[in-house]
Amino acid sequence: MTVKQLNRLMLASLAPFIGMLIWLLNSNLTFELTDAAFPKDTTPLAAVPAQSTSVISGLDQAKQLAIHTASSIKKNVKLYLAVNEKMNGVVTLTYSQLGRPSLIYDRRITRKIGSPVQQVQSDKLTAQLFTIRAEKFSGYALKVKLKSENGMKMVLGNDKYGSAETTLSAVRRYNAIAGVNAGGFADSDGKRYPLSTTMLNGKYVGGFHPSEKDLFFVGLNDSLKLIGGKMTDRSELDEKNLKFGASFVPVLMKNGVPMPIPQKWLTSPSRAPRTVIANYKDNQLLFLVIDGRDEAGSSGATLTEMQYLLERFGAMDGYNLDGGGSSSLIFNGRVINHPSDGTLRPLPTHFLFFK
């Protein structure tokens, strides 16, 4: 179809409408509206003021209601703020009271030991160092409150099974704030191995060994609780979720009650440098490190005296760790005790504490 044909088609289609438009323009059409198209207001004039009065009265009532509602809301908001302030005070007081028994208990056990001569406090632990003075011996107490699982660990000498190093060396290697000698040892073929069952990072080092005679195992579980005693079955130890631990002899105290000391350990030797690990009801740890000039039994403390100290200091469970020349206490980078060998003894296991 060409453009002309398309134009013609459009013109033919619009022709009727164009013709109608021309007719309307030329015709003289008129329209008239009757009175019915404009309805009159039939409301009596007297009713208008009455209606206005009613509307005004309604507006006044609405105004009074709004004022009353606003006042009520204001009072409720004020009451809410006052109650909220009181509740905040109650919550604050409750939280302070929740920690009060723990604080009171800590003060009570601390007073039993004395006044700390040094203290380290961080988000990982609070470590307090005390001196001990008795008639026949002197020594030190280290009270440790762990706040994090990273506050304490046990390490092997030079991090190798069969190797040994001093506690001071281990403290320096790990940049620890303090260190105490751990379990006993046995020498073989020029190497120094941990005695009996030893755990490190939740795994057995050298395998599990049932407790024999007076041997015990003591260590820390994943809840930072001291776990100790004779372990005759591996499953018995596995279910306790231990992080680390070592072995020695004998158990000194259980649940605040002194345990019978084997006859051999009463006289071999009777007095010696000692290291003891213990705990409190709130899971704080207590280490006692007692000095002695030699291991011939003429200086140091007896195990019975160590039990007496544990009772006096309010401890719950206590375990005798390797003593004699093995007793080592490091605090703030310094050797605190006086090693009976004259120098610190290289050992296979150490307890370390971190700031």
UniProtKB/TrEMBL annotation:
TM annotation in the entry: 7-25
Keyword Membrane assigned: yes
Phosphodiester glycosidase domain location: 174-354
A Pfam family annotated for this UniProt entry: NAGPA
Domain of life: Bacteria
Keyword Disulfide bond in record: no
Keywords from the UniProt entry: Membrane, Transmembrane, Transmembrane helix
PANTHER family, alphabetized: N-ACETYLGLUCOSAMINE-1-PHOSPHODIESTER ALPHA-N-ACETYLGLUCOSAMINIDASE (PTHR40446)
Protein name: Exopolysaccharide biosynthesis protein
